[in-house]
Design a protein that fits this description.
Layout lengths: L1 E3 L2 E3 L12 E6 L2 E6 L5 E4 L7 E4 L14
Length: 69
């Protein structure tokens, strides 16, 4: 997943592209995913389909993700 034009997009990516790199930070509610290029968080969108979106990081519930193994 790459951050392009303010959106999280499924595109081919390269490890040398900051927009394709994400940092996962442990929080008390799960993990927060922050894009290395935009410094925005991956957030759950609204509506029935729940598309993901890039949002300003606020530690909100819609930005908390669960790690499944």
């Amino acid at each position: 997943m790459v951050a392009r034009s303010g959106k999280a997009t499924m595109k081919p990516c390269s490890s040398s592209d900051p927009a394709a790199l994400w940092n996962a930070y442990f929080t008390t509610a799960g993990f927060e995913l922050i894009n290395n290029g935009t410094k925005t968080c991956l957030g759950e969108g609204s509506g029935d389909t729940r598309h993901v979106t890039l949002v300003r990081c606020t530690d909100g519930n819609s930005q908390q993700w669960t790690l499944y193994r």
